[in-house]
Model the fold of this input.
Amino acid sequence: MLSPEEKSGVLCFTKIKIMSTKTKSVFALIVLLNVCAVASAFVSAEKGLTNKIKIGRAQEQRTEIKAEALPETAKKTLNDKFKGWTIAKAFEVVKGGAKEYEVELSMNDETKTVKLDKDGNLKQ
Done:
C-alpha cells in the first residue's frame, strides 16, 4: 500500500507523464524564467551599492562612496557650512556625464541631505 506522500508523488508524476510535449515545453520555459529571475535578483543584491535610475532620456548612476572619497572642495564646504554635522552617507551621482555629490548628514536626532557639484558648491 502506498503512503499519502508516495500517492502524491505518483499522481504528480502521472500528471506530468500525460502532459503533451507542447505543455511540457511551456512548463519547462516557465520554470527556467523563474530560475533566471531569482538569479538576477541575487546578482543585483550582490552589486548592492550602484543604482541606475532611468529618468526620461537621461540616465543617472548613484554610487555610495566613503566620506574620504569626496572631493576636497566638497569636504571644505561641508566643514564650513555644517559644523557639528557628521557625514552618515555619501553618494557620487553621474547624470548626463556630469558628476555631483549627495551627502546625508546627521547631528543628534536630526538628518539632512545636501547636494554639491564637483566644485563643492551647494545645489538646491
